[in-house]
Amino acid sequence: MDKVPGRKLWSKEGLVVIFSLAIGILLSLLLQAPVGTSPQAPLLAHAVAPWIFGPVQIALLYLPPWLGAVLLPLAALACLTALPWLGKLGGRRLALGSFAAVGIIIGVLLLWFMGREYWWH
Amino acid sequence: MEDENSVLTRRNLLRIGWVSIIASGLLSLWPLSQYLTSSEDSLQSDIITLKISPLIGNQWYHIENTRVWLKRAGQGYAAILATCTHLGCEVAYNSSQQKWFCPCHGSVYNAEGTPIAGPAPRDLARVAVKAVNDTLIVNIGKVVGMDRQIL
Amino acid sequence: MTQKRTQENFLWHIRARQVPARALSVVYTFCLGGISFLAFVVLAVTGVLLMFHYQPGYSDGYHSVLNLASVIPYGAVLRNLHYWAGQIMVITVALHMVRVVWTQSYRPPRELNWVVGVSLLVITIILDFSGYLLRGSQESGAAATVAVHILQLVPGIGVGLAAAFFGHPTALSGSTLMIYVWHCVALPSVAFYLQGYHFWRVRKDGGIKPL
Ligand code: FES
Q1: Cα–chain-centroid distance for residue C109?
Q2: Which residues contact C64 (CB under 8 A, 6 or more apart)?
Q3: Which chain B residues are Cβ-neighbours of C159 within 8 angstroms?
Q4: What is the pLDDT along chain A (121 residues), one digit of tens a residue?
Q5: Alpha carbon distance A17, C34 (integer Å)
Q6: Which positions in chain C have a beta carbon within 8 angstroms of at least one beta carbon in chain B?
Q7: Residue C206 falls in which region: left (phi positive, over 0), alpha (psi -120 to 50) or beta
Q8: What tens digit of pLDDT does each residue of C173-196 get?
Q9: Is residue A32 assigned to a domain?
Q10: ipTM of this model?
Q11: At CA A111, angle to CA A51 and CA C65, rounded to 5?
Q12: Cis? peptide before C109, omega within 30° of 0
């Protein structure tokens, strides 16, 4: 494999750091992080889950909790963890296939959640 | 210099060290779990007392800062816990629709607390309530059947 | 002079003098792992600063967040930065994983590092979630309650785990001292050490972690 001096890497990293920090600071100047509803306010009629847990909230609407919120997430996690060994067993197709299956299920649930709630908090 | 026959060779010493580190780690697991899971500092009484007020009528009435709602039932009172039987969110009674609504996964209960929509598996819990002179005593630790709600 | 030499040597010790040309290609890595680490650093710095004004607790949590967001000079910017860095970190960590799968970088001898990476993903998600709970709003209370009930479903250890991680959140505010300590001290420390190992391993296995 070709080798290049490490210095080139450093300058590239520096550029990425400056660029990403600039974007982050811009985001936080323009967009306020939500604060939610006060615990002293009247009871909420509808509590939206944080967006990364949207898939779980959707699953809980239709599946019993032990399945939708315990077993399926654990199965997905086990599948992810086992990926190198899946790859050893069945090659790239099996590894990529199972990763894609997990990813697509989570992605569909996430889109479902966002469609349902319009936007996340 | 090390004596070949001594019990305290370097290897043995290292082994003793490792074993004692692992052993003390394992031994501390139980105390640690007891320490982390203790709720001695946040114990709350199950008993709620309040003055009988005319606000408690035939519609469910919320006792502030608790999950208890009360109403008159027959000669006495009924107390219901506004804890969703699905996954524990706090439900609220909508008196115009005469239903309980859960904010989390949309369970709906009728006025008596029986689920009519959503994933909730059971009725909202009824707890013991007793009128003594002009005060009501609610024991949220004591779940009662719907028929025995008036104590 | 000697000191400078040592410093340089140390830098070159943790960073490679020579790297595979492929690792430098932005298209090969998309800088995702590095951006995740950068987000972690930003989160640590802003997080410590937020701790000076945040107070955990049933109503204290929400009120101190409101104070930070409104009256404390630069509190809002710090909180926004913390929030957005957190959201970005979850996304970049996930995308970094997609990239690793795509380039098949999980193959032996890198299985162990893949597993470390998966645990870092899990810790990142737990950190994001606990941060959401510390906001102390009704939404976070509902989320905490649901999470406690779900955890309690796990046979054997569930109840203890829920008590140790969440303390006793109410349904109206997820902010408790327990979650605060896990979020601010315990989990970030674990994540920090795992990341150190992750990066060291990347180099040892013959790649390089470009940003
Ligand atoms: S907790 Fe009420 S519907 Fe899930």
Answers
A1: 26
A2: C53, C54, C55
A3: 37
A4: 466 666 667 777 888 889 889 988 998 999 999 999 998 888 888 888 888 999 999 999 999 999 999 999 999 999 999 999 999 988 888 999 999 999 999 999 999 998 888 654 4
A5: 9
A6: 138, 141-142, 145-146, 148-150, 159-160, 163-164, 167-168, 171-172
A7: left
A8: 889 999 999 999 999 999 999 999
A9: no
A10: 0.89
A11: 15
A12: yes
Residue A1 neighbours by CB distance under 10 Å: 8
Q: Could you tell me where the DSSP H helices lie in chain B? A: 10-37
Residue B119 near ligand 1, beta carbon < 6 Å: yes
Helical H segments across C21-156, by residue range? 21-24, 26-29, 32-51, 60-70, 75-102, 111-134, 138-152
- Interval C99-120 mean pLDDT: 90
Contact status, residue C211 vs residue C169, Cβ threshold 8 Å: no
Q: Which residues pair with B47 in a beta bridge?
A: B139
The CA distance from A45 to the nearest CA of chain B, in Å, is 5
Q: How many domains does chain A have?
A: 1
- Which residues constitute the domain of residue A73? 48-117
Q: Answer yes or no: do A61 and B92 touch at CB < 8 A.
A: no
C127: chain A residues, CB-CB within 8 Å: none
C146/B104 touch (CB, cutoff 8 Å), yes or no? yes
What confidence score (pLDDT) does residue C29 get?
65
pLDDT one-digit tens code per residue, B92-132: 999 899 999 999 999 999 999 999 999 999 999 999 888 88
Instruction: Answer yes or no: CATH 1.20.810.10 is held by domain C29-201.
Output: yes
Q: How far is residue B2's CA from residue A113's CA, in Å, rounded to a whole number?
A: 70
Interface of C with A in 148-177 (CB under 8 A): 149-150, 153-154, 170, 172-173
Contact B106 A43 (CB under 8 A): no
Q: Are C27 and A9 in contact (CB under 8 A)?
A: no
Residue A6 falls inside a structural domain: no
Out of A50, A88, A95, the one facing C132 most closely (by C-beta) is: A50
